[in-house]
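Page 42, continued from yesterday. The earlier attempt failed because a stray header line got pasted into the input along with the sequence. Redoing it now with the clean sequence only.
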Amino acid sequence: MAGGGRNAGAQALTASQLRVLSLSTLFSSAARPGFGLFVARQAEALAMRGDVELVVVNPVAIAPQPIDRLINSPETRALPEQTRDWGAEVHYPRYPWLPRIGPRWNPALIARAVLPLAGRLHAKQPFDLVDAQFFYPDGPAAARIASALGLPLSIKARGSDIHLWGDKAFARLAMLAAADQAGGLLAVSGALKADMAAMGMDAAKIAVHYTGLDHARFRPLPRTETRAALVAETGLAIPAEVPLLIGVGNLIPLKGHDLSISALAHVPDAHVIIAGTGPEAEALRRQARELGLEARVHLLGSVKPDALARWLAAADLFVLPSEREGLANAWIEALACGTPLVISDVGGAREVVTSPSAGRLAPRDPRSIAAAVCEVLADPPTQSDVAENAARFSWDENAAQLAAHYQRIVA
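This time it went through. Structure tokens are written below.
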């Protein structure tokens, strides 16, 4: 399936659109609407520009029966082969997930499942570029597809793909080979770019590509009134006069929600709400009970974007002591809602907390987190001052930078 493209890219630059095949294991679908929402939102912003036609391939892992029925929801198993969503043509090829040994073989298995589809699509209407929206397993899989189609390659790093998989020799070697093949790489923060270079990737190839933001959704709202309305709607027992903290992220150890709960013991009267789902839910509830904080800890589960924006605007502080991050979308969304941050000094945190109005960076221990929380609560910045820290982030700018990145690689 080698060759193809549009006359080695020359025609692509004079055509009205670049045609990009984007591989993303992270993508919002009917089965998991909140999963990879930031990738889907980026695709939508790119589609609205009109100069890039994006075809998304969102591979779906299928385990052997009967394990698959325990792993995948009926909605996941019922996903169609193709939809049109987020302004893009989206395909859902299935690939086999192998228990215990899956991570090592996922790039090859994904490429094998996607290549027949990619070949048919390319033969029907040629692509100019293959793009991966996550570095592992997407990057090495996309590298195989790009080689087979004779096309240039772009790969984006988002954080855990580098920090988690980079520590595993088999994944590190595959990522370095894919990075060497790629015409250009993206990182969600300057700090992540430095980590990629330290890992052995060519820094000259790496551009920083910050996340976007929906300013119409994530914006300051009257805090007292918004909080009162949400408490009335949900029935949560949160007194009106107490400090309200919020954390957003999967309920996994990496996010440090347990540290936020422990810190609550040192912040008098404060309540914390945590939006997210994951395997640590029961452990977090048990921790709150054992610390005598059960009445002050509220796990919201999965929260739709509009409701999440209201909760962020209603809270006094956003607290997320993650062990690792690239540059968390939730940080930017909280700032845009006028809510300052208390986050750990990881990834691109220093690129976001650039002024006292944006919040504080705190070591990952409960007393340090509590001290930072109390410091901000003692002299809170105005919502408008906090929101100004997020003014430079937008999906329009994100899409413009991504389109220019694609054009550079094809050129």
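Notes: The two ends are 22 Å apart (CA to CA).
Reminder to self: strip header lines before submitting.
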